[in-house]
Specification:
Length: about 325
């Protein structure tokens, strides 16, 4: 896993240079994403939808990123002292950069066969979050003139945040489904695109965390047994702080994680329930705006079957279904 930030574990893409319309060079993901979204106003597009000049500038920037990632990936493997086969046989390297999901058609063109882990969070929590930087940075580029200014002015930050969350997550999912269907019909042993949805709520929940880890391990080809994954699922969650407190908390990461960390992390999810408890109108409005993605990712279900929703994306192979991960893992059985 390649990281450039100790606080967020992100890759910032500062190697990428993007020339704007005024011939000024900018660096990183935001100018690249804004340039592409200004041309597509969608996350579900093909390279043919991009003007030639935009496509050329985007490809040039991403080739710079690829060169840098290849170098950093090799350095990371040397530091780890383990071969990639020991770590994850299905990938050469990986990185975290949430906004890069709207660049998937370009990333596939540059990197070839790729795996995409689509991490989603309940849009109602996103709409109520203090961190509204995605909306502030990309809303106008994403919608452009397709949304009249009077409409933009009429809706508040919560509604805009939900609208953006719904549209680009649902469109990315649509694009991924199309790629998987194409891969299934091609006569090739090499899968061009592999896709997995992981809901953050499933990953942090003690009830479903082991199943998520099993699915994730299979996705990347990790050589870990169900028992080892069970041990990992019982490790304490380390609270890295909110987006506003990460830098302040970065010096505190050396301390061992404890039960309080888990409580703080879990408290950040599902907070919309308390916030909207007495505001059914606001809740209904947000759920109407985000209905496509909320239903697609199992946050809203017509049957109101909570268990069905929770297990929707937790399909694990038959090879691990027989294993029972106990509620408490014995330390003596872990990684011995």
């Amino acid at each position: 896993m390649i990281t450039e930030s100790a606080d967020t574990l992100d890759v910032h893409g500062e190697e990428m240079h993007v020339t704007d319309n005024e011939n000024k060079q900018q660096i990183g993901w935001p100018p690249l994403v804004q340039m592409v979204l200004n041309a597509t106003h969608s996350a579900n597009y093909t390279l043919h939808d991009l003007p030639h000049s935009v496509q050329a500038r985007a490809i040039s920037a991403l080739l710079e990123l690829k060169s840098s990632l290849l170098r950093m990936g090799e350095e990371t493997r040397m530091l780890d002292g383990k071969s990639q086969i020991e770590i994850a046989a299905g990938v050469q390297y990986g990185w975290k950069a949430p906004i890069s999901m709207v660049l998937l058609p370009l990333l596939q063109q540059i990197f070839g066969p790729i795996k995409f882990l689509h991490v989603v969070r309940d849009g109602r929590d996103v709409a109520l979050s203090d961190n509204q930087s995605p909306q502030e940075k990309y809303y106008n580029a994403f919608y452009g003139t397709t949304v009249e200014m009077s409409i933009k002015d009429a809706i508040g930050n919560r509604e805009r945040a939900m609208q953006l969350w719904n549209d680009w997550n649902y469109q990315v999912w649509q694009w991924a489904q199309q790629q998987e269907q194409q891969s299934a019909t091609q006569n090739s042993n090499l899968q061009q695109f592999d896709y997995m949805v992981m809901r953050t709520e499933d990953f942090i929940s003690p009830v479903t965390r082991w199943e998520v880890l099993c699915q994730l391990a299979e996705f990347v080809g990790a050589r870990l047994t169900p028992a080892q994954l069970c041990c990992i699922s019982h490790q304490s969650i380390h609270d890295l702080g909110t987006s506003h407190s990460q830098r302040r908390n970065s010096l505190d990461k050396a301390r061992p994680a404890d039960a309080e960390d888990a409580k703080k992390v879990l408290a950040r999810y599902g907070k919309w329930k308390a916030a909207l408890k007495d505001d059914h109108e606001d809740q209904a409005r947000l759920e109407t705006i985000g209905a496509q993605a909320l239903k697609t990712f199992g946050y809203l279900d017509a049957t109101n079957d909570v268990q069905k929703q929770a297990r929707r994306f937790l399909d694990i192979s038959e090879s691990v279904q027989h294993f029972k991960c106990p509620d408490e893992a014995q330390e003596t059985t872990c990684f011995r």
